[in-house]
Backbone:
């Protein structure tokens, strides 16, 4: 019996689930469909009321659980998330965009007019905010599931825990803990490979070190990370301040501890635009 | 009766990746307006890549699309390697093909079983099909899982794989890791053949057209990463010439830029295009199965793309088995790609069609300029043309049926709106905005 089934035995009627998308790549909600072994069990225990990527049935709210993917980048979305919160008994954000603003938060601090000019011929057609921000900056969030993308097993755990009315078992320790339990040799110590594992929350099962690669921070900052100490280590390994800042400024770069460390190392560096006219012929 | 006036708006398209809407207007029996509206918010990738290191687009551009991250990784890697004067051969090249096989399997099967089949069978979702046909859906899930397993083993995880880098991979899989996939792939092959036969028996609306089909063409292999950009009308160019013949338009109803040829005509990319341009390069048993289920070497009815996706899935399964059986791990998992000032271009075949990248970098490896043209941006004019012709020929249908079939006409292309949105929120007029609001939350 799967975790989902055991958690929800004899518990009718099924709670309703809604899945919402904001600025994002679709990958985190795809993770739900990628739970092949658990998908039909989930579908049997939850009433999938609103999940446009998977179903043309779009039931109206309120919903028992909302999963929210993506960050807030437009005025319209800023209003939409407030309404979704109002319609949701429980709201869970999934992924780095929803929990930290995502890679598109690299715009934060840059000149958005210039960004629009680089991509579009008609910036006047476009309405966008100057920032990409996490959902929790706008509404109360009941649980934040990290990752770029999220881990399928953790998603199933969060849903199962919710159905069972217990807290989700999602560790907030560093990647190093999983790396040790997996038996990986430390690539930073043994090979001098720069690695964000010591300051990054676990959840990926120390995937990158298992592939001879330094962690690049998909799951965002762990609880109480010592980023300054790690940055010193990265300096010892030969990285200059600009590289260190860039390393922290990626998928979770707008999360406070990573943002602070990047700014300590290179306060002026924002994603640089070199100036060019917009693309696309006028239509 | 035949409708004289029709005006419908579908504010949230279901079973597509990303956020889009559809608008159709018919006045006095004439189709006056069809629009596939893309309102996905802009994410400005081409701007935020500027100033980043040349090693980073492989990971950063994967985040454009969670459905086809491998395609982004491959187009980014090949274009930057070209800028640096490096070409990849041997086992590393084979591993890249294997990785792409995995993505085609998972992406195509998701579309066949979960996004497209419900249209033909009258269900609102693939999960709903499971209520009546659990064994069929279980088998589709097994097939999809096999594609994910291939990407998992080669790339580290199915979505945003971590193992791809410039020059190859961080770690080459062992022979044993790859051969562990063989039983799954062999089972998948049988399931896929059944799936093709099953979908070929669906009832297909008529909508044929003499399309210009654009895809890669390689002399020896059904294309993933390499080849010239060709069409059935004589186009035959290198990726470096692509922007000389194509042009992107910024239209007010889409955050995606529309791509056309400079002479103004539109074209189609994706499974039907690849199949038409490369049928002779499919393995003989895949060709034979195509003939058995009634498909010619060129298919011009986009509703039958579901069958072509099945045939491409079968090819990907067989190609994966071929690569695995011949696999000898490379001595080094990657070749060095030293930075040098220059510009590089590459097009690879994402599941949805041609994905073009161009990068200009300086001698320190800093990115000066990035350009990305995703498949759905290229298909958007083609989709709208299909809609226009479909509506004009089917004004006798019940309005609910007509609307459903129009949505299906869009889903024929498996549009990936997350990627096509290059990245803006366009200004949609107030009436549409309100309709979106009403549908999204009501």
Residues:
């Amino acid at each position: 019996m799967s975790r989902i089934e055991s958690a929800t035995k004899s518990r009718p009627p099924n709670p309703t689930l809604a899945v919402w998308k904001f600025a994002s790549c679709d990958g985190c909600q795809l993770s739900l469909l990628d739970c092949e072994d658990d998908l039909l069990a989930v579908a049997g225990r939850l009433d999938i009321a609103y999940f446009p990527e998977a179903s043309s049935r779009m039931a109206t709210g309120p919903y028992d659980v909302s999963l929210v993917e993506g960050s807030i980048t437009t005025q319209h979305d800023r209003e939409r998330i407030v309404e979704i919160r109002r319609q949701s008994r429980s709201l869970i954000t999934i992924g780095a965009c929803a929990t930290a603003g995502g890679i598109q938060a690299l715009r934060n601090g840059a000149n958005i007019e210039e960004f629009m000019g680089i991509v579009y011929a008609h910036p006047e057609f476009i309405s966008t905010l100057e920032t990409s921000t996490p959902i929790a900056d706008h509404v109360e969030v009941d649980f934040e599931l990290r990752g770029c993308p999220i881990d399928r097993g953790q998603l199933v755990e969060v849903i199962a825990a919710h159905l069972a009315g217990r807290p989700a078992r999602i560790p907030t320790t560093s990647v190093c803990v999983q790396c040790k339990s997996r038996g990986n040799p430390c690539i930073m110590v043994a090979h001098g490979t720069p690695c964000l594992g010591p300051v990054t929350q676990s959840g990926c099962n120390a995937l990158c070190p298992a592939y001879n690669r330094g962690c690049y921070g998909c799951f965002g900052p762990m609880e109480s990370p010592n980023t300054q100490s790690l940055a010193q280590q990265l300096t010892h390994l030969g990285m200059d301040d600009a590289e260190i800042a860039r390393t922290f400024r990626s998928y979770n770069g707008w999360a406070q501890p990573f943002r602070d460390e990047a700014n300590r190392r290179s306060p002026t560096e924002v994603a640089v635009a070199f100036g060019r006219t917009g693309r696309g012929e006028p239509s | 009766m035949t409708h004289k006036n029709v005006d419908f708006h579908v504010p949230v398209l279901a079973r597509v990746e990303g956020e889009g809407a559809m608008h159709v207007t018919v006045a006095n029996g004439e189709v006056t307006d069809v629009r596939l509206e893309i309102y996905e918010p802009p994410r400005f990738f081409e701007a935020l890549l500027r100033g980043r290191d040349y090693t980073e687009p492989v990971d950063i551009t994967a985040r454009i699309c969670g459905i086809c991250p491998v395609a982004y990784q491959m187009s980014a890697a090949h274009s930057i390697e070209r800028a640096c004067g490096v070409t990849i051969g041997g086992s590393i090249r084979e591993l890249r093909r294997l990785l792409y096989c995995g993505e085609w399997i998972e992406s195509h099967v998701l579309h066949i079983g979960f996004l497209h089949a419900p249209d033909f069978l009258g269900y609102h979702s693939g999960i709903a099909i499971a209520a009546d046909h659990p064994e069929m859906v279980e088998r589709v899930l097994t097939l999809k899982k096999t594609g994910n397993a291939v990407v998992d083993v080669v790339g580290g995880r199915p979505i945003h794989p971590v193992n791809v880098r410039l020059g190859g991979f961080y770690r080459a899989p062992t022979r044993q890791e790859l051969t562990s996939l063989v039983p799954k792939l062999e089972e998948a092959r049988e399931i896929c053949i059944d799936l093709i036969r099953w979908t070929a028996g669906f009832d297909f609306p008529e909508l044929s057209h003499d399309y210009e089909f654009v895809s890669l063409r390689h002399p020896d292999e059904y294309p993933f990463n390499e080849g010239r950009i060709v069409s059935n009308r004589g186009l035959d160019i290198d990726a470096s010439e692509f922007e000389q013949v194509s042009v992107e338009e910024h239209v007010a109803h889409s955050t995606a830029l529309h791509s056309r040829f400079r002479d103004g005509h539109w074209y189609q990319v994706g499974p039907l295009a690849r199949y038409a341009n490369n049928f002779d390069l499919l393995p003989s048993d895949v060709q034979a199965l195509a003939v058995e289920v009634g498909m010619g070497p060129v298919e011009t009815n986009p509703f039958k793309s579901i069958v072509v996706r099945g045939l491409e899935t079968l090819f990907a399964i067989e190609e994966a088995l071929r690569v695995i059986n011949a696999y000898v791990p490379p001595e080094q998992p990657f070749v060095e790609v030293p930075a040098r000032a220059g510009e590089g271009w590459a097009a690879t075949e994402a599941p949805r069609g041609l994905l073009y990248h161009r990068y200009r970098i300086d001698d320190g490896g800093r990115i000066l300029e990035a350009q990305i043209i995703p498949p759905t941006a290229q298909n958007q004019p083609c989709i709208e043309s299909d809609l226009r012709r479909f509506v004009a020929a089917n004004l006798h249908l019940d309005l609910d049926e007509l609307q459903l079939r129009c949505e299906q006409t869009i889903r024929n292309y498996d549009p990936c709106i997350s990627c096509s949105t290059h990245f803006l929120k366009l200004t949609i007029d107030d009436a549409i905005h309100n309709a979106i609001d009403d549908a999204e939350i009501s």
In short: Chain B touches chain A through 86 residues (CB under 8 Å). DSSP finds 16 helices and 13 strands in chain B.
